[in-house]
Design a protein that fits this description.
Number of strands: 0
Shape: globular
Strand content: under 5%
CATH topology of the largest domain: Growth Hormone, Chain: A
CATH superfamily of the largest domain: MFS general substrate transporter like domains
Order of helices and strands: HHHHHHHHHHHHHHH
C-alpha cells in the first residue's frame, strides 16, 4: 500500500491549524491578566481549563471514534478550536473567558483521535514516516501559535484574537471539499470490523500498551520539564539573560520538529522498538553534555537532544495503534491526549523537587527520566502476532 501524500498533507494542515490554538493561549495570558485584572492563580486556571479539556478527554472521543466513523469531526474540530480562542479577546467576563477556552480545548480534543486514526489509513507500509507528516503539523502549530497570537494582539489590540477564526474557516472548507477521499477508507474499515468476531485484548496487548503509554508520558515529562525549567535555571538560578533562555527553549522545540520528520523513516527502516530504545538511551548523555556545556555548544547539544527525544512522538502513536489495531481512536487518544496531560502533572512534581532541593536538582531529575523509560521499553513485546495478540 502506497503512502498518500495528498491526504496526509491536508490532515497535517488541519493539525497545524488546530494546534496553533494550543501554542497561542499561553502567550495571551499576560494580556488576559491585565485586561481582567486577574491574579497569577486565576490566570493559571485559564491554562488548566484548556489543558483538561484539550488533553484529558481525548481518550473519550477516541472511544467514540472507535464505535463508529465520525468523519464530520475533521472539519468541525479545527473550526471549534479556532472559534473558541478567537472570541477570548472580545470577552470582558472571566467566566465567559473560561467557557471560550474550554470550547477551544474541546475542538482540540475532538480533532486528535479522529485525525490520527484517519492518518493511519494513508500511511501505507511506512507507518512511522506517514504519521510523522501528520504529527509535524501539530508540532509546528504549537511552535507558531505564540507568534500568531502576539502579532494579532500587538497589531489590533486584544480584539485581534478574532483573526484566529480565519485559519479555522479556511481549513474547514478544505476538509469539507476532501471529505469523500478522507473518510472512505475509515468507513470501509468500520464495515469490515463489524463483520469480525470481537476478541478481548490479550494480556500481552494490555501490558505492552500500558508500558508504551508510560514511556510516552515520561517523554512528555522530559519535554515539558525542560521547556519549563531551562528558563528557571538560566534566569532565576544563574541570573542570566532571559532572551538566551528563550532561544534555548526555541532551539529545543524546533529541533524536535525536525527530529519528528527525520526520525520516522529511520524507525521504519531499523524497526520501531529498536529506534525507540536507541532514542531514549541516547537522550541521557546528550542532556548531560548540554548541562555541562556553555555558549554555542549548549545550543548544539540541546538541539540534538530535542531532535533525538521528540523524534519518537509520531512513532509511539504508530506503535500504540499497532498494539490495539481494533481500537485506533482510543490508542491515538491515549498516546497523544493522555500522555500530554500527564506531562503537565510531571512538571508539578518537578516543582516540588525544585522547591525542596533547588532548580539544579529538578534539571538533573529530568535527565534520569529517559533511562527509566528505556528500562520500561525493554519489557514491551512488539510487534505482536496479529492472530493471537501474542509475540
Amino acid at each position: 500500500m502506497e503512502l498518500n501524500k495528498k491526504a496526509l498533507a491536508i490532515l497535517s494542515a488541519a493539525h497545524f491549524m488546530t494546534d496553533i490554538n494550543q501554542g497561542a493561549l499561553p502567550a495571551l495570558l499576560p494580556y488576559f491578566k491585565e485586561a481582567l485584572t486577574l491574579s497569577y492563580t486565576t490566570s493559571g486556571v485559564i491554562l488548566l481549563s484548556a489543558n483538561l479539556t484539550s488533553s484529558i478527554i481525548q481518550p473519550v472521543f477516541g472511544h467514540l471514534s472507535d464505535r463508529r466513523p465520525i468523519g464530520w469531526f475533521l472539519p468541525l474540530a479545527p473550526f471549534i478550536a479556532c472559534l473558541g480562542l478567537s472570541l477570548t479577546g472580545l470577552i470582558s467576563n472571566y467566566s465567559l473567558l473560561l467557557i471560550c477556552v474550554i470550547v477551544s480545548g474541546i475542538g482540540v480534543a475532538i480533532f486528535h483521535p479522529e485525525g490520527f486514526k484517519t492518518a493511519y489509513f494513508f500511511t501505507g507500509d511506512k507507518k512511522a514516516t506517514g504519521m510523522s507528516i501528520f504529527a509535524v503539523g501539530g508540532n509546528l502549530g504549537i511552535a507558531v501559535g505564540p507568534i500568531v497570537a502576539l502579532t494579532l494582539v500587538t497589531s489590533f489590540g486584544l480584539k485581534g484574537t478574532l483573526g484566529i477564526i480565519i485559519p479555522g474557516i479556511l481549513i474547514a472548507i478544505i476538509l469539507l471539499f476532501n471529505m469523500s477521499m478522507l473518510t472512505t477508507p475509515v468507513e470501509s474499515f468500520h464495515r469490515e470490523k463489524e463483520k469480525e468476531v470481537k476478541t478481548p485484548l490479550s494480556r500481552d496487548q494490555k501490558i505492552s500498551f500500558s508500558l508504551l503509554v508510560s514511556i510516552a508520558t515520561i517523554r512528555a515529562w522530559v519535554q515539558f520539564g525542560l521547556v519549563t525549567y531551562i528558563p528557571f535555571y538560566y534566569i532565576n538560578y544563574l541570573k542570566g539573560n532571559p532572551l538566551y533562555a528563550g532561544k534555548l527553549v526555541s532551539t529545543f522545540l524546533m529541533a524536535g520538529v525536525v527530529g519528528t520528520l527525520l526520525g520516522a523513516p529511520l524507525a521504519d527502516r531499523w524497526g520501531h522498538k529498536k529506534f525507540l530504545l536507541s532514542s531514549l538511551i541516547l537522550s541521557f548523555p546528550l542532556l548531560l553534555l548540554f548541562y555541562y556545556s556553555s555558549g554555542f555548544m549548549s545550543f548544539i547539544f540541546l538541539g540534538i537532544a530535542g531532535m533525538v527525544l521528540i523524534s519518537t512522538f509520531a512513532l509511539t502513536t504508530v506503535m500504540g495503534q499497532a498494539l490495539l489495531p481494533q481500537n485506533l481512536g482510543m490508542a491515538s487518544g491515549m498516546m497523544v491526549g493522555f500522555t500530554i496531560s500527564a506531562g503537565g502533572i510531571g512538571v508539578t512534581l518537578l516543582g516540588v523537587i525544585a522547591d525542596t532541593w533547588g532548580v539544579p536538582m529538578a534539571i538533573k531529575t529530568i535527565f534520569a527520566f529517559p533511562l527509566i523509560a528505556f528500562g520500561l521499553g525493554l519489557l514491551i513485546k512488539y510487534p505482536l502476532n496479529k492472530k493471537t495478540g501474542g509475540v
